[in-house]
Amino acid sequence: MKNVQKIAVLMLAVILVVIAGCSSAKPPKEALQAAMTKINEADSYAVKMSFGLDELEVPQTATLEGNAAATAAIVGMIKDATITVDAVYKKKPMRTDMNMQIVVPGDMEMKLTVPMIMTEEALYVKIPQVPMLPLPETITSKFIKIDLKELAEKEGTAKLDLAAQQKLGKELGEVMLKHFDEKTYFSQPKAEAAGLPADMKADQIIAFEINESNYPKTVETIVNQVLPEVLNVLLANEASLKTLQLDKADIEKMKSDLETNKAEILTTFKNDVKVNTLKVTGAITDGYLAYQSGKVSIEGSDKESGQKMKLGLHYDVTYSEINKDAKFEGEIPTDAITLDELTQMFQLPVGM
Question: Is 0.85 surpassed by the pTM of this model?
């Protein structure tokens, strides 16, 4: 059963990889592929993102393995949480400045803002003031510097290669698009129906949707065509596998299990998984993916154990200032402290 679960997790991940966008002069799939490539190759852009969990129900065994009350409390907190991100990206020299805000609603609403700066060599994170956990200004006024090469060596992984990850993402996206036909999955809604930002002028809008009527065909397509190709793409990207902390042997085993358990996997997803909503809408301006939004609602159950899970989420992403001079708010911190220095400030042994 564990092997089937691994395949199931990968399958859901593949489904959620789908993004949408297009340009006016090309058919939807061709335009989408071109738009994805073009935004990946952009020299710079600004991006605004928001993400929210609408529904979250975890299997009972997950709560029984630890403290059920604590697990339930955490699930309850993050279920209605929202995350927003404002970021500026530049390819050469590589730099991304990001402000991430996490809001947990409730009687005692909690709001955290986490500024981050990422270069090719390091990640800088500013520790936020956490309600009910006052931290000294000597900590919250400074950035923490994380050496990415050193971190990779400690974790036994490859250093993050952004170009390699973008290439991998592009290849996986192409595999997805190749097998989903336009007539079944794609539509071209009007701007009002698509929910685009009021000031967004799109050359073309595309929606990709998996629903109750096409879900059985979707399962067949993913298990028989998409997953085998996805696994082959991963096997051909050993550097990316290391970065993702995956072993080639694991992928090869997964590929073998897919063939061996294909009938069981098909039955499980057709009978035990229900897709209420899986819709992604995207817009293209001047050939670039300028906006995308998505809504997902999935239910799963295991008849043998009676376990159930539910996941509902929504997100939207807006790109702007594409290929214009990237405007960063400040300089890269020169007085950042290291993780070792941070542990010393808390008077904790290094490594805890």
Answer: no
